[in-house]
Structure formats: C-alpha cells, structure tokens
Amino acid sequence: MVTHTDDQSLDTAFINRTPTLFVYVKIPVNPHHRADPFHQRENELALILQNQDAGSVIGWGESVSDAGHDGTQHLMHQRIDITTINLDITRHALRTALTQLAVPPGTEIHYTEAETMLMDVYSRDDWRLHVPCL
Predict the structure, then answer these.
(1) Going by CATH, does the domain composed of 18-132 fall within 3.30.70?
(2) Which of 65, 67, 69, 98 is the one with CA 20 to 30 A from 19?
(3) Of residues 28, 25, 29, 30, the one with CA closest to residue 48
(4) How confident is the model over 16-55, as pLDDT tens digits?
C-alpha cells in the first residue's frame, strides 16, 4: 500500500468539493417571554429547509442581555445555525419560511458574501436585503 503525504496529492482530494457556507438567523424575543422549550420553530424551519434541499439546521440557542445592575439577564434572541452549499437558495427559502412562521420584525438572516458580512432584515411584511453588518 502506497501513501502519499506531499502537498500536491492533498490538493487534488479537495478540488471538486463544494464549499459549505454558514448562515445564522437571529429572531428577537420579547423580554417577558421564555424561549420555546420544545424548539418548535427550529424544528419547523429544519423540515422546510430539508424539504427544499436548501440547507441544514445544525444548532440553535439563546442570546441573553448583558447583566443588569442586579446581575440579572434576559433573553434577547433565539439563534438558529444553518449550513448550505447554495447561499441564494437558502436565503430565499429562509425569507419565505420565516415570514410564514410569523417571526417578529427585526429578525435577521446573517451570511457572508464576497468576504463581506451581510444580513437580510425583516420589517413588517418586507425584507431589506444585503444590509451591511456593523
């Protein structure tokens, strides 16, 4: 058995591999509400993306505020992490699905395009596209 370990042989193993891209969704949460303990929205979104071959939900979690003067924190966003090989298809599917799932205004889809961090932002039945992240 011959094993090649030089740089040239390693390069050929990845020539035809499609890059996996990372996208995440930030859904604002009312500070007086608890997160969904059953992750219903994430599960529904995962099924929609899977059925449309538009990416895979790989995880989710909550973002909390900085600690207040009394040390308490509150829930600010629900985050959903997604991988895809086609950013345009995934962004379109996410915008449609998130609108159908009745997400609140301020929901964001974050992605990188041409080495620039961008987001699509939902505001009252409309999406602003390609907004630069600050």
Answers:
(1) yes
(2) 98
(3) 25
(4) 567 899 999 999 987 666 666 657 888 999 999 999 999 9
Q: What is the pTM of this model?
A: 0.82
| Tokens standing for residue 118 | 């961008």
Question: In whole angstroms, what is the distance from residue 41 CA to residue 45 CA?
Answer: 6
Given the structure tokens 């979104």, which residue do they identify?
45
Alpha carbon separation from 111 to 21, 65, 104 (Å, rounded): 8, 23, 19
The size of the chain, in residues, is: 134
Q: Residue by residue, what is the 3-state secondary structure of the chain?
A: CCCCCCHHHHHHCCCCCCCCEEEEEEEECCCCCCCCCCCHHHHHHHHHHHHCCCCEEEEEEEEECCCCCCCCCCEEEEEEEEEECCHHHHHHHHHHHHHHCCCCCCCEEEEEECCEEEEEEECCCCEEEEEECC
CA angle 24, 55, 81 (to 5 degrees): 25
